[in-house]
Amino acid sequence: HLAGQALMSTEVDIYNLALANIGQKATVASLTELSVERQRCTQFYASCLRKVLAAHAWSFATKRETLAEVTNDTEAWDYKYALPNLYIHALAVLESDSLDWHDSFAFVVEGSYLYTNVDAADLRFVWYQDNPGHFTAWFEEALACLLASRIAGPIIKGAMGRQERNDQYKAYLVALGQAKELDSNQSKNNPVFVPSGIAARGGMSIHSFDDLISEQRSRRLR
């Protein structure tokens, strides 16, 4: 490759990393080939990507948009907004002129809509960033481990497949923790929305709240 040229991963690269993780010699050459390995990876890739994206406020998958207001159908909140395209999860609801990400107002997400008391609200959120060229190396590693845990059973079969699935999921949790820590270090201003119930009890640190969410998700997936 050209000197100084950035090396960017592709979806195929992540497929092959996942296959290598479960000891497969076969590799995928393209997203259109008819191999069993490609079909299994494609089958689970999108759901795995959404799951990893939902686990953290990733710096490369975070954006801010002004929300589109729709007709309100509740008295509990003053305004109702449609969620943005490719929405994964909300981080903060802000007034349109706010520059401080910590100035989040109360909100609730129900289905495809967000309710809040903020007029002309902006939403800071994690979106479905599916371009591997923007992934960090540790995010890519975590994604590959999770994908490996999903394809292990269908490809290997039997007790060995189940064991490999469990081992790869444990590897995913380790890689995810490292990816989150390194990504958080990219910014000293990386807020997480803390529910009012927790805030009323004195709150908790950003990292402890983030870890709590990950732990709860992990228990549901086991």
Radius of gyration using CA atoms only: 20 Å
Question: How many helices does DSSP assign?
Answer: 6
Distance between the termini: 42 Å
The strand order across the widest sheet is 2-3-6-5
Instruction: List unreliable stretches of 5+ residues.
Output: 1-6, 189-210, 212-222
Helix share, percent: 40-55%
What class, by secondary structure content? alpha+beta
Share in β-strands: 15-25%
Kindly describe this structure.
This protein is of the alpha+beta class and 222 residues long. It is 44% helix and 16% strand. The strands form two sheets. Strands 2-3-6-5 form a four-stranded antiparallel β-sheet, with no helix packed on it. Strand 2 and strand 3 (79-82) form a beta hairpin. Helix 2 (36-53) crosses helix 3 and helix 3 packs antiparallel against helix 4 (158-184). The longest helix is centred in the last third of the chain and has 27 residues, at 158-184. The chain is elongated, with a radius of gyration of 20 Å. The chain starts with 10 loop residues before the first helix and ends with a helix. Mean pLDDT is 84; it is low at 1-6, 189-210 and 212-222.
